[in-house]
Amino acid sequence: MNIDKAITEMQAVLGDRLSTKKSDLDFHGQNEAYYPFTPPDAVAFVQSTQEVSDIVKICAKYDCPITPWGVGTSLEGHALPIKGGVTIDFSQMNKIVEIYNEDLNVRVQPGITREELNAELRTTGLFFPIDPGANATIGGMTATRASGTTAVRYGTMKDNVLALEVVLADGRIIRTGTRAKKSSAGYDLTRLMVGSEGTLGIITEITLALQGQPEATAAAICDFPDVESAVNTVIMAVQMGVPIARIELVDAMMIRAINNYSKLDMVETPHLFMEFHGSEAGVGEQSETMKSITGEFGGGAFQWSTKVEERNRLWAARHNAYPAARGLKPGFTGLTTDICVPISQLAKAIGDSEKDIADSGLLGPILGHVGDGNYHATLLVDPNDPDMIATAKGVAHRMAERALAVGGTVTGEHGVGIGKMKYMAAEHGDGWSVMADIKRALDPQNILNPGKMVQVN
Amino acid sequence: MNIDKAITEMQAVLGDRLSTKKSDLDFHGQNEAYYPFTPPDAVAFVQSTQEVSDIVKICAKYDCPITPWGVGTSLEGHALPIKGGVTIDFSQMNKIVEIYNEDLNVRVQPGITREELNAELRTTGLFFPIDPGANATIGGMTATRASGTTAVRYGTMKDNVLALEVVLADGRIIRTGTRAKKSSAGYDLTRLMVGSEGTLGIITEITLALQGQPEATAAAICDFPDVESAVNTVIMAVQMGVPIARIELVDAMMIRAINNYSKLDMVETPHLFMEFHGSEAGVGEQSETMKSITGEFGGGAFQWSTKVEERNRLWAARHNAYPAARGLKPGFTGLTTDICVPISQLAKAIGDSEKDIADSGLLGPILGHVGDGNYHATLLVDPNDPDMIATAKGVAHRMAERALAVGGTVTGEHGVGIGKMKYMAAEHGDGWSVMADIKRALDPQNILNPGKMVQVN
């Protein structure tokens, strides 16, 4: 490894856009979770796929680690350069390459954020539905197989990425997939790259499927006497095939947090936040079905957000749940869990989690993309209290173990990064060593986001 | 390679179920397309995953090629043991392992066919929607990433396989994926195996997502003055997001063939065959929307198949299109193409194909899963006329080249097998060598369905 020589050669390619300024290094050493500050040795602000290829070739020559960076919203430290080296920052590769209106797809550079993309699409009648909450980049969402509130209807990134351009570990540029809706031509390299967290190749262009903007949209909240009633409502809605666009559980403690943070006055019991997309008649039919199901399980009256601004305020409040939760204990930070289980196991999983959190003496409000069996507890901890952090990690660990025991996964959508490495053997068994075999085949020098996802040494 | 020693050891494990009888070898040397008869050296009628693992370990010891066999309906010679060795026949591993009603999923052995599965599911209120026409096994459909008439609504096998059990090339047994609806835990080994055609591992169990049986189902056909009008109807329906369950184009010549074969009396112009799934109100709304779109493009009145038997007869006629087409020229065989293009390119692609077929003096009726941009021409050839076969291959080749030129794929659903190997470099570029890298990593001895999918030597 000779990072200094790599930096010198990269500077010859990028000039000023290869930075070793402390402010740039510091910015790319941060993360949104509790992982330690880890700055890179240099940051490359690339502007083209060819530049990425040139940088990778130089890094391959000097065994210099490479970590891609979107906008830094990941929650498991994916973009922290834990072995040093260069961070490739995609903020200057943030353009739409081409919109294909008739085909309902679009080619974009990795640095565009989902909100930027949807702003550009507004006049086309199309939109990109995946919404992880954070205004993440499309590159980052692809690399972590993101999903979020709308996955119950529209799927995750694996279902919405049609094709990719990828720079391999030796600098070669490949294209995976096509713009056709389906193909049986060979191994599914597209879906191998989706969720690979920068460890198999560097994504430099993404072709996304788009949806037509729905003719009608309606959102409502509904309160429940307890979490189980809310979850049972969701299970029945899923079983009946209601094509609901969003159905989010927010537990009583999180309602309190959101009320405080977003100045709302919801009754402090568990709620479902729902959104319906379709024709006017379709939205009406879905709403009636959901009213009938919620009634069966003791849900209250629907409170509708009929205007766009009201609806945006509702989802903004939902998306601000993390800072809202932290507001319950000023000065505390949040340790976020990301369990996903078969939906039949969901009510028990959440109930067990709530009990464990309470027994541990922690505050840990819960919300979830319950239509997918995915939920998050935000375990509030004093960053200066190692005992409390250890207690929270114990709770998170037991949640993960219980998820695996019922056929679930330790991460529904946040990804592996640094935080979930320790569960990979338990979740995948020998499959984890197959992942390492693939990593060795595609990145024999282990320069692409090294130290993440697999054990290759 | 020492196949004889491998056979002796496999016989010790399986007894009579390791067959070298000529009738068994001959049966597994056939295919539904025009590829040459290629029998294996032995056939293993396995009954458990452990037996598959034992067989693979013996084959690894002696470098003996292994080819999995479902029910032999593939159209590109996937299951032909072109390097000899043992064929693993899954007909005795054809059970449902467990149905999870609440979770809408099911675990099955690979040898169960889709019709057997749906017969077993009938009383549960659930069904498995993917319908490639042939009564293929779920293992074969998974291995070839099958799709068919319902993919426009329900997706392909890649969208409906949640998890797999796989025997690796060294005999280890792994599980990929979970029964949870989504996961971000590592490389997507499930979707790497889906469509890998037995070259990366041997699938021994499949967890499938299921759908609720729709409350209402309706089917109709509609005639059009020309193919372009029918295709433009489909493009608009897709753009408007009509959740149609099936929308199939059948061209005028294929209508004639189906009329003859299935004793029907449709007017001999291009048709769309449609099916609607949903609530009563939803099906009504979809039908009205489709009537309005078809009217706009010159479509005739809808002819409804309201009774279940009528509907079954309609789709049976559609599924029998291949023998129907061959009936146009008794004694001829069919060379089937499988182009898939972005939907904006579909009308031109089909028009160019029709012209090329006519100019070549061939008969080649066309039908297609047009909602996905996927269509098939059945080029009728005299198997004893090498010039005619060469002419047909020329037409198929130009169809493939035009598909690639507009961002499509040479195979929408049939897979690579023997027939599409020659296009892999053109479709994937350096991505094809990445596929070979993965193959070498997972099957270093090249014993799993060798000679298919990638070039490793």
Question: How would you explain this protein's 3D organization?
Answer:
The structure is a homodimer of 457-residue chains. The first copy, chain A, is of the alpha+beta class and 457 residues long. Chain A folds into five domains: 3-89, 2-Layer Sandwich (Uridine Diphospho-n-acetylenolpyruvylglucosamine Reductase, domain 2), CATH 3.30.43; 96-212, Uridine Diphospho-n-acetylenolpyruvylglucosamine Reductase, domain 3 (2-Layer Sandwich); 216-323, Alpha-Beta Plaits; 328-421, Alpha-Beta Plaits; 426-457, no CATH class. Helix content of chain A is 37%, strand content 19%. The first copy, chain A, has helices at 3-14, 22-27, 49-62, 114-121, 138-143, 151-154, 157-160, 189-193, 227-239, 252-262, 280-296, 308-319, 321-326, 346-359, 386-405, 424-428, 431-442, and strands at 18-19, 42-45, 66-69, 86-89, 96-100, 105-108, 126-127, 161-167, 173-177, 202-209, 211-212, 216-223, 246-250, 271-278, 303-305, 333-336, 339-340, 366-369, 374-381. In chain A, β18 (366-369) and β19 (374-381) form a beta hairpin. In chain A, α1 (3-14) packs antiparallel against α3, α9 (227-239) crosses α11 (280-296) and α9 runs antiparallel to α14. The longest helix of chain A is centred in the last third of the chain and has 20 residues, at 386-405. Chain A is globular, with a radius of gyration of 22 Å. The two termini of chain A are 16 Å apart. The mean pLDDT of chain A is 96. At the A-B interface, β9, α8, β11, α9 and α11 of A face β9, α8, β11, α9 and α11 of B.
